[in-house]
Sequence to fold (416 residues):
Amino acid sequence: MYRETESQIKPMFDFTKVRADFPILSQSVNGNPLVYFDNGATAQKPRQVIDAISQYYQTTNSNVHRGAHYLSDKATQLFEDSRTTVQKYINAKDRVEVLWTRGTTESINLVAQTWGVDNVSKNDEIIISTLEHHSNIVPWQILCERTGATLRVIDVKENGELDFEHFKTILNSKTKLVAVGHISNALGVINPIKAMTALAHQRGAIVLIDGAQAMPHLKIDVQDLDCDFYAFSGHKMFGPMGIGVLYGKKNILESMSPWQAGGEMIEKVTFECTTYNQLPYKFEAGTPNVSGAIGLAAAVDYLASLERIAMVEYEEHLLDYATSKLSQIDGLEIIGRDCPKASVISFEVKGCHSQDLGMMLDQQGIAVRTGHHCAMPLMSALGISGTVRASLSFYNTTEEIDLLCKGIEKAKTLLI
Fold:
């Protein structure tokens, strides 16, 4: 439980300096200072990312890999340097293991529709968890329908934590793939993916990690995790929308069939036969999102410039403070607690529908997420229809948490 001592209240992280990097946070909404607690849906962008994208369009805009002129050469260099930046940030062995996609959803679908179609068949099993976002459920359902494979689901405990013991009981020689989220988008629960990956590999299974919610909070080392695939989105880690990454081990990517066909993913085309391009271009058909890749690299550089340990400690400080303050509100129940968590708090208020509460908070300038958070099976397992989610970031403050608590109290007087 959080105790309000001076040593704990005083932040070790210079959030004031960091907050100034995010121009959107200085505005007002409905006559109140903006309090942005919807970081789990999309994070705000620092000036460094905005400037990098603007600079590209003002000075370098051109297609890549194809032009025999200065702008194309410069754009290609920036584009490929961005891939290397991401490779080093996640500690991939080779830059060709970083594939550009539109985001986590497309990354997962790419694996399902290439590796999955080629390798999964009847009598095989795919394991996911109750905590998953719909994007890490539906692609595997479709694959199972097409192949006759069976989808197995890891149970969740009453406190929202993944049931690791249940995972061990359903993992078996038939398991072909384990696909789990690193951090639950709905509850903020951190899953033990390194241990899960090791167990899955002992059974000969491939492991895909949905890292969309983890990238903004944790420093990811894919070699240390030893996962086979790691998928994430740029916009949740302070980069632009419409760009994401699929990390895959080189030997696995080389064995996979192409997904989308067109320019760039080919080496030679005749009407009789087509030869596919080498990695990573085999999976990057068409004109890529060049500005998105440059913006994502700028976001990575920005995150790398921060004092990571202090940043994590500050987010933990915010989580502890918010948990303590919200727990003092009569009728409020936090869903998912007493387990490893990122700075995400999902809660219900007795007598208040989550959507109504979210609208009342918005009138006070406070942005939260409401509903099932694209995790309907999880909500069903917990016996609830939805929650209010406050997802915090390192640019948030304890003063904003106080405003959230006051906003909830005010909403209660009008809704109950």
